[in-house]
Amino acid sequence: MNRRGRSGPGGWGVSTGRVTLSHYGVRSENIAVVGASANLAFELARAATRRLPSSIVVCQRTAQLVADSLPLCALAPVETKAQESERVFGLQLGIGHRDPVRTLLPCR
To answer: Where are the domains of the chain?
Structure first.
């Protein structure tokens, strides 16, 4: 179980921006996504797992792109290594419903 009392994987962080796919090591399967956007997504996922009330967290840039399509709620800013503070938003999904996007739950 993670710190929020959930079993299974932790939170998801979604960030929009440029990344680089990098090969490392000897094996061709050894690849990594690197860049500021990838780092931000990792930090958002960690925040979603540890302390935020939404398990899917998006950065401000992503929120601007999807706000007309997905139900979002503003969350407390997240301190990041690269930036002083990032405004983040939680995706409000109802769990166990056929159409989770139409079943809104408040971010607490």
So the answer is: 12-102
